[in-house]
Amino acid sequence: MARYDGLPEFVAARGQALLRSAYLLTGDGHLAEDLVQSTLVKVAPRWRRVAAVGNPEAYVRKMLYHEHISWWRRRGRRNELPSAAPPDGERHPDFADGALLSMVLQQALARLTAKQRAVIVLRFYEDRSEIETAELLGCSTGTVKSQTHRALARLRVLEPGLADLLTDAETPEVAR
Amino acid sequence: MTSRLHHALSDLAEQAPAPRTELTGHVITRARRRRRVRLIAVPAVAAGATAAIVVGSTLVGGTSTSAPPAVTVTVPPNGVFNDGPLPGPLPATVVEPIKYTYADGCRQDTDKIMKPITGDCAQWRLVDRSGRQWRFPDAPAATRSSAGPAPVVSPDGRRVVYYRTSDEHYVSRELSSGRITTIRRRMPLRGRAYELMFSGDGRRLSFSPIRPGGTDLLANTTTGAVSEMPRGKQVIGLGRDGSTVVLTASSGERKTLTLAGPDGQVRGTVPLSPQAQLNGIGGDLLSPDGRTLLALPRSGVRNEAVLVDIHTGKLIGKPRLRLPKDVNFLSAILGWAGPTKVVTRSTVPRREGPRTWSERSVIVDLDTGRTETFGTIKLWAYRSGMELGTFSGYAP
């Protein structure tokens, strides 16, 4: 067990937070569980070294995002995510209803590329800076900026009803 | 950052499932298994390569009906599921939901070889969402001459139930953990057969005797507990979590709906609208919220359906199931893929030769009429040696 000392405690303390990020990335509860489990299985063999550095969560999250993008590449662009059906454009949903807003947002997120989803989650859910996001995803800050811009633009096209939400989000983005 | 997008994403993230208590255990078990595999992989690969060369050189030029070497394979680009080598056995844990099941007898024709297909070639294959395939050695072989019950996969694709011939019990296997649960009722199949139906979440499974006279059973696939349903009634619908069971007369004219709990206790009986016809379509007909039953109209057109309120027995809608033109006809409704979506199964006309078999699953939105293809399975095989299973992994 010495090889995995501290791993159960880490999972107990941070498992829920990891699952939430994974849920936003995958759009599905089961896939989120699978993603977190697969990531932890890859982290486990090097857990002692990861824990010794002092910030295991940063490493686990980095692995989580890379694993997610890797899954997406393996799956290809088959659009088999459970929420892949676009929202019905002929309807005008009442976004005052929080549950409906969440559903529409989830469906729109599912239509982004894996990297675009990762950028949205890191920048606007985890409140990471562009530099932190670039470091986690292993790309340049310029790529983070362009991916963010494209992701927000695509969300606007996919679901015009989210425009207010996204404009509000992009204001501090531009100001940075 | 305190943008509305942040709040909306936070609200959405709240819907994530709670971490399972056994998560750490699974992680450590899988990590240890990976380590063991790595420690033996290099010498094993070298030995395997040598063996393959030796075996290959002895087979060149000859004909053999024995199974080719077992490897993990995926669906090839041409879409023919069995156009590749024999897949390896199902691993202890599978991450992605299972989407299809089939058996192809390694493309052998039993009418020609004059003997039943046995061994690895007779085993059922499971295919996951990414197209990875495995053999399923635990279930009875799929040979036509001595076929046992086919394995069934839950609508979410995460659980498979199969018959264990050695002790005449059905067994439930959770694919992500490999956990096995034996259904606590011996079910000898001599002269008997059952229709199996899962609840949407895969935690309940009903067994309906095909011959009239028996009693329907409802099993909890996570504990193995079994309860008997009211005598003379057949289960036709289970809610998403199986908390509501809809039954109707197992034989004769079906004029009433009976509602029961998972323990088999009757909660009520309502007269069924005479315009609804409850036979010949199969699958789980009860919507995920446990309120609406999908049925056929009394008179005739196969693609017309009616929706019945199970608490009143009255009609509340008449959706039309318009399928794409390139499928033959609706052969079954498998269940519900969402609050307004049902999953259908249809055969596809054979245009690629007499030995190509194809079935398609189409999801129909009952509100809008929109359709989307859930999946298509295509095999190249002799009819005498193949079986098409069913689609799964559609339930959210």
TrEMBL record, chain A:
Keywords: DNA-binding, Sigma factor, Transcription, Transcription regulation. This is SigE family RNA polymerase sigma factor. GO terms for biological process: DNA-templated transcription initiation. SUPFAM superfamilies: Sigma2 domain of RNA polymerase sigma factors, Sigma3 and sigma4 domains of RNA polymerase sigma factors. Residues 13-78 form the RNA polymerase sigma-70 region domain. Gene3D superfamilies: 1.10.1740.10, Winged helix-like DNA-binding domain superfamily/Winged helix DNA-binding domain. Belongs to the sigma-70 factor family. ECF subfamily. The keyword DNA-binding applies. One of its GO terms (molecular function) is DNA binding. It comes from Actinomadura rudentiformis. Residues 103-155 form the RNA polymerase sigma factor 70 region 4 type domain. InterPro entries: RNA_pol_sigma-70-like (IPR039425), RNA_pol_sigma-70_dom (IPR014284), RNA_pol_sigma-E_actinobac (IPR014325), RNA_pol_sigma70_r2 (IPR007627), RNA_pol_sigma70_r4_t2 (IPR013249), RNA_pol_sigma_r2 (IPR013325), RNA_pol_sigma_r3/r4-like (IPR013324), WH-like_DNA-bd_sf (IPR036388).
Automatic annotation (TrEMBL), chain B:
It comes from Actinomadura rudentiformis. Pfam families: PD40. It comes from the Bacteria. This is WD40 repeat domain-containing protein. Keywords: Membrane, Transmembrane, Transmembrane helix. The chain crosses the membrane at residues 39-60.
